[in-house]
Write a structure and sequence with these properties.
single chain; 160 residues; alpha+beta; 8-stranded antiparallel sheet; two-stranded antiparallel sheet; 10 strands; 41% strand
């Protein structure tokens, strides 16, 4: 389904997202997205100060680093990412599709405010890094390093 699916949003060449539920629909309690990480794409190491993240893998596989703990997840696997825990997510060479719930709501707003509408996205679509960083900070996310760096590597780089 991922190859022929029309996604609502594209975050550069790393992530395709359908927003399934917004905070405005849940009284701010949660939001939910269906997301596809493109093959070998990775998030920057980061942490959330305002919302927890719950990730359920529906297709493909990925690796999640929670601080220094590394977990490989495939279809049917689930991970909860608590507040203030440095983490990073990397898709395998086929990509990974997940259902992501944040509580209270936060991630769907980040996507809606910084991603390119899917109808306007193409093979050259780039993420607006400055807008993503600004909105992330506004929503309480702390980016700890560049995409693909694990939390442990970011900690070592920061405290060298």
């Amino acid at each position: 389904m991922t190859a022929n699916h029309t996604w609502q949003y594209a975050l550069g060449q790393e992530l395709r997202v359908d927003v399934l539920a917004r905070g405005s629909e849940s009284g701010g309690r949660h939001d939910m997205v269906d997301a596809f990480m493109l093959p070998n794409s990775a998030t920057p190491p980061h942490l959330h100060t305002r919302y927890e993240e719950r990730l359920y893998v529906t297709e493909g596989s990925l690796t999640v680093w929670l601080d220094e703990d590394e977990r490989r997840l495939g279809p049917g696997d689930f991970v909860a990412i608590p507040l203030h825990v440095p983490h990073m997510i990397k898709a395998d060479d086929r990509g990974a599709r997940t259902v992501l719930v944040t509580s209270p709501a936060g991630f769907a707003e980040l996507i809606e405010r910084t991603a390119t509408p899917g109808a306007d996205a193409g093979p050259d679509t780039k993420m607006n890094v400055d807008a993503f960083a600004a909105v992330s900070a506004e929503l309480g996310d702390v980016i700890l390093g560049p995409p693909g760096m694990t939390p442990a590597q970011a900690k070592t780089a920061a405290f060298g």
